[in-house]
């Protein structure tokens, strides 16, 4: 396998599938299947999940809720998603641990780096919920930070599109996919891959990012096997 330990970032919105809100049972089961395939091939898998399908901190101010309060609400939303993923993975016969950036003893372990690494070594899938536990951050930043902490080989950003395009492929039919990018190039060209905090964390710590289509069956495993032309590699 090309990668031994991966950090998979899934957005909350991806879990919605075709729904307007919440968690699509078909979609979450598809994701579990994809993760199971990769795990079965011996790759250690850690997951960061977003919360955008339930709540985002930026929504808060518009509704008269304090921004920081809103961010904590967003973090709690990620825990709901993380619990759903944990349960779904377990239904597929996988062993998991949920670790939270905010202490929540009844539902998950606190994030302890050494413990997370040990879980991975034992073949457990580790899900990081509640972001990094601080307001004004995103789950993309969480993905970068946790990837560095657990020494993951790569951050895999699962999206609806199969990589970074010269323009938005959903709006511009002349857009073409870019197979490889350097961090500098991505910043120079203004490609919006992750927020800057998340992006520069990976850049400064030499953790490559792969943007790929998580909804296409087999993609994740293909990347692990080193197949060319899947997604965009930023390194
Ligand atoms: N959030 C936060 N700190 C973190 C991670 C998340 O404050 O470390 C909050 C923030 O309000 C964010 C929300 O949780 O909008 C949900 O996460 P995100 O928007 O990253 O989810 P995604 O877009 O991936 O679904």
UniProtKB/TrEMBL annotation:
Subcellular compartments: Cytoplasm
EC? 2.7.4.22
Q: How does its record describe regulation of its activity?
A: Inhibited by UTP.
- Catalyzes what? UMP + ATP = UDP + ADP
- Which molecular function terms from Gene Ontology are attached? ATP binding; UMP kinase activity
Q: What residues bind ATP, as annotated?
A: 9-12, 52, 56, 159, 165, 168
GO BP terms: 'de novo' CTP biosynthetic process; UDP biosynthetic process
* Subunit organization: Homohexamer.
This chain belongs to the protein called: Uridylate kinase
